[in-house]
Amino acid sequence: MAENTSKVVYRALSLGAGVQSSVLALLLARSDPRLTELGYLKPDTAIFADTGWEPDYVYQHLDWLEKQLNYPLIRVSSGDIRKNLRQGRTSTGHRFVDVPLFLVNESGKKGMLRRQCTTHYKIVPIHRRVRELAGGRRGRPFPKDEHAEMWLGISTDEAGRMKPSREPWVEHQWPLVDIGMTRRECAEWFAYNYPGRVLPRSACVICPYRSDDHWLELKRSEPDSYDEAVKFDRWLRKSRTNPVRALLNGRPYLHRERRPLATVIAEREAGTPSSVDYFNEECEGLCGV
After folding, report:
1. Number of structural domains found in the chain
2. How far apart are CA 131 and CA 17, in angstroms?
3. Interhelix angle for 212-221 vs 261-269, to 10°?
4. Of 5, 48, 55, 69, which sits with the fewest C-beta atoms within 10 Å of its C-beta?
């Protein structure tokens, strides 16, 4: 990719509040020499996009993390994904299902909806606020000789999630990749520097990309949120007049096996081998980190 020769006018850390982005935020706050040698100083801000349906432990971790940083942390939102989904609408009010539910039709053919919730509830509100903070004027093109950097917490073992920005005024940077840090090394660094503190994985409560281990983690650490996911999974198939079901050609499920979530996870608890982690299939690189 050709080097961007325009002027950098703003630097933002996209904070998912998961393992990698949390560790990156803390490394930046500590002016880690591996980062400073590459020109990664403090960002102008860290920015977290709230779907409105994150587990409580993510919000608690975010509150703690904010106190550790020596630069601003901003929360943004484009609406409540729980409320919108139950109405069969997107954040912009369109009748559409933007969560990647797993489907099976009457003939047994399997399918999956496109994942657009990341764009609607993460990318759009983050870009909107960063553009404003970087001096962009509403309704006017961003100056061609300027751009903002967006730092993403993707580690070397998830390099497949590194995607260029779709916006010409935003340039993505991956500091953890640049210093050769893996997700495991991020977790080990955190455990060493903050002994006894849990570093959560971040994903909204009903994210279909959760691995079975991740569902089990949610059930153990936050049973109320897990119960919400189970109830939502059942509601998806409640009747054809369901606002979500009415928009789909097939029965929707939160789990890849296209069976009730509660059934699959109960089997995992009983010792049936767990499924793979699906986050590496997440295309935008903004969830789960």
Report:
1. 1
2. 21
3. 90
4. 5
**Amino acid in position 37:** E
Q: Specify the CATH number for the domain of residue 39.
A: 3.40.50.620
C-beta separation of 150 from 40 below 8 A: no
Q: What is the pLDDT of residue 139?
A: 87
For residues 129 and 74, the answer to whether their CB atoms sit within 8 Å is yes
pTM of the model: 0.91
Angle at 59 between CA 88 and CA 97, to 5 degrees: 15
Domain that holds residue 139: 7-204
What secondary structure does DSSP assign to 32-70, as a single string?
-HHHHTTT----SEEEEE--S---HHHHHHHHHHHHH-S
**Residue 286 covered by a domain:** no
Burial string for 232-259 (b: 16+ CB within 10 Å, else e) reads bbeebeeeeebebbeebebbbbbbbebe
How far does the chain reach from its first CA to its final CA, in angstroms?
24
Ranges of H-type helices in the chain: 19-29, 33-36, 56-68, 81-86, 117-118, 124-133, 175-178, 183-193, 212-221, 223-236, 261-269
Q: pLDDT digits over 243-256, tens only?
A: 999 999 999 999 99
Residue numbers in the chain where pLDDT is lower than 70 = 1-3, 273-289
